[in-house]
Design a protein that fits this description.
Elements (H helix, E strand, L loop, with lengths): L2 H11 L2 H9 L13 H15 L6 E7 L6 E14 L2 H7 L5 E7 L4 E5 L4 E6 L10 E6 L5 E6 L7 E3 L27 E2 L14 E2 L8 E3 L5 E4 L14 H10 L8 H19 L4 E2 L5 H8 L13 H4 L1 H14 L3 E4 L6 H6 L6 H17 L9 E7 L15 H17 L4 E7 L2 H13 L4 E6 L2 E2 L5 E5 L13 E4 H9 L4 E10 H13 L6 E6 L1 E4 L2 E4 L4 H15 L1 E4 L7 H13 L1 H4 L10
Parallel strand pairs: 2-9, 13-25, 14-15, 15-16, 16-17, 17-21, 21-22, 22-25
Antiparallel strand pairs: 1-2, 2-3, 2-4, 3-8, 5-6, 6-7, 10-11, 11-12, 18-19, 19-20, 23-24
Helix pairs in contact: 1-2, 9-11, 9-17, 11-12, 12-13, 15-16, 16-17
Length: 604
């Protein structure tokens, strides 16, 4: 073991004085050295990426200044870490608060002074700690004393240490508007929590020491509750100012955040799917639930104003039957029937007072179906839909409440899904960017893993997939108010949050799914990608089934896999259990691993 992990092991498991005596008995590879071993640095950076940025680190191109504004700088680099640090070095030498909201930015030379070079001063910390070797140079403004950044002499420390409060922000910028706040810098965890001066009351993961796999994770009181696994839960306490709290209040009720214990369980359940998709495997999802209920129970299961909104309440036994069929077919994720159960949809259907009972029952039906499966069956991930389903049928763009009511509706449903045990949020029917942001805000605030699901994707006259955008208040929104934007452009804001762990194309024709997947990749998404298309025609409020041979569906899936590295596949409306069973059998036959060479989805 390297000296850092060995020392951490001692400190976590023994009183501090005893740990120091124990470590002194053994030779350390760092003893007498002015730098840590290169392999230890590599492990630290690699572990940060695996634990907190599994889909890639965000780039930073921002300007900032000191308190007196005489020293201006620019940063061009990559955000390696954003966290709350309780270490002794920050407390003694670097930080202006404790714990310190700390940023690691690569490369070490990411900061450039663009004005006021004569005001830049420095001082040197000659001896850092028993773990971090060498010296540190602290750069600050000589006029107002603002610390700007820290550079380390150890060549393995390829980052510079900074703080978010020195960057320039629009006074009320961001989505939702937060005074002086940028989403990209939201802290992902607490480090060195065993050194805390006070307990932290937030839902961020608390690392007793650092972020190497297997090291201790604690609760807010400092009691060990588990160990670090990759990726880690991304929970957020935004530490908002009173202005920001008022801004959130204007949006309606705050979202109920998952507890730390729930986050560990939820991210653990999601991890196996992510790892399988990212290591050359194939993940099989379930198929359409609402349409399958209609296939069994008839058209009376579809509501003229809310589509599948009443199925859980009036056809619960059929909903559970469908979930059981997907479990038996081999689905690795079962989605609760919450697609059309937000308040703004249920109110259109006249059952708005049943929001909580319907969503809670929907989650219960998934768990009940899973519990009825043989013990040998691996437990599927429990997903919950939070969708931008169009409520009502007065016009093609749907009927929407005003912006505040819409945000409250999504916040309410997201909170209920968290309390009811959802393990991941599937942000479905993303067909309009401006509408999607309301649901997106609620989803990422839960702290659960979030999958962004582009829905009902269409191609323009040039064959390029597009989505909609509108500046109008949702309540007055009409089809004439909207405009087309390319998926490549419209998708990007929805990906800029660490809780977003995967992207799907769903409720889209098989023929148009390929171009939509291509657009997702062109938007810069390098993480897990999936598809669950539809098959048939929607004649409101019912679904017209147009079944195709399963071989055609499998051929399309092979094409998406070959061309776009699409490794999470299921079905949406009209694609039921027999298609999911075919996917499961195809996966386990191994045929998908070496078939489909030279296949192009446009041949379908």
């Amino acid at each position: 073991a390297d000296c850092l992990s060995h020392l951490a092991w001692c400190e976590i498991r023994m009183p501090r004085k005893r740990a120091a005596r124990w470590c002194n008995l053994y030779a350390s590879p760092c003893a007498g050295r002015s730098e840590m071993p290169a392999e230890l640095w590599a492990n630290l950076f690699d572990s940060l990426a695996k634990a907190f940025y599994p889909t890639g680190n965000p780039d930073i191109h921002m300007e900032g200044h000191c308190k007196c504004n005489k020293l201006q700088f620019r940063v061009d680099g990559t955000l390696t870490a954003a966290f709350m640090c309780h270490c002794s070095m920050c407390r003694w030498y670097f930080a202006q608060a404790n714990p310190s909201h700390t940023l690691w930015i690569e490369p070490a030379t990411a900061l450039t002074v663009i004005e006021g070079q004569e005001h830049l001063k420095q001082w040197t910390v000659e001896r850092l700690s028993r773990n971090l070797r060498g010296q540190a140079t602290v750069y600050f403004c000589g006029t107002c004393g603002t610390n700007i950044n820290v550079r380390f002499s150890d060549p393995g420390a390829r980052m510079t240490l900074m703080w978010p409060w020195n960057f320039k922000f629009a006074e009320w910028g961001g989505t939702p508007p937060r005074h002086g706040y940028a989403e990209i810098f939201s802290p992902r965890f607490h480090a060195h929590y065993e050194n805390r001066s006070v307990d932290a009351e937030d839902s961020l993961p608390k690392l007793a020491d650092i972020w190497l796999e297997g090291m201790a994770v604690t609760n807010n009181a400092g009691d060990a509750i588990g160990s670090i696994t990759f990726p880690m839960p991304n929970a957020y306490d935004l530490q908002m100012s009173s202005d920001a709290v008022l801004a959130d209040a204007a949006l309606g009720a705050c979202v109920h955040r998952a507890s730390l214990e729930q986050l560990h369980a939820a991210w653990g359940a999601t991890r196996s799917l992510l790892q399988e998709a990212q290591t050359g495997g194939l993940v099989v999802l379930d198929g359409g639930t609402g349409t399958e209920v209609q296939r069994i129970a008839g058209t009376q299961s579809m509501d003229n104003r809310g589509w599948s909104c009443n199925q859980v309440q009036d056809f619960g036994d059929v909903v559970e039957q469908v979930h059981c069929q997907y479990c038996s077919a081999g689905a690795q994720c079962i989605m609760a029937n919450t697609y059309a159960t937000s308040r703004h949809v249920l109110e259109r259907a006249g059952i708005g007072s049943h929001v909580e009972s319907i969503n809670v029952k929907a989650m219960d039906l998934v768990r009940s179906a899973i519990a009825k499966q043989p013990k040998a069956v691996v437990k599927p991930l429990i997903g919950a839909s939070l969708s931008c389903h169009r409520g009502g049928d007065e016009n093609a763009f749907g009927v929407w409440p005003d912006s505040d009511s819409l945000q409250r509706s999504f916040n309410e449903q997201a909170s209920i899904l968290v309390k009811s045990g959802a393990e991941a949020i599937f942000l479905e029917m993303i067909f309009c960017q401006s509408l999607a942001m309301y649901a997106w805000r609620a989803a990422v605030e839960t702290g659960l893993p979030v999958f962004v699901c582009l829905g009902d994707v269409r191609l323009d006259e040039t064959g390029q997939p597009y989505m909609w955008w509108s500046p109008s208040n949702p309540k007055s929104l009409k089809a004439s108010d909207r405009e087309k934007i390319p998926v490549v452009e419209g998708l990007k804001p929805l990906l800029e949050h660490p809780s977003v762990v995967g992207v799907f194309v769903h409720h889209t024709s098989i023929a148009d799914t390929g171009p939509a997947l291509k657009a997702v990749r062109e938007a810069g998404w390098k993480g897990p990608l999936g598809a669950y298309p539809d098959q048939g025609e929607h004649v409101w409020p019912n679904w017209t089934f147009q079944d195709i041979p399963v071989e055609n569906f499998i051929a399309a899936a092979q094409g998406w896999l070959d061309e776009y590295d699409c490794r999470m596949i299921g079905g949406c409306c009209g694609l039921g259990p027999r298609y999911i069973k075919a996917l499961h059998e195809w996966k386990h036959s191994g045929a998908w691993k070496d078939g489909g060479a030279g296949y192009h989805s446009s041949k379908l």
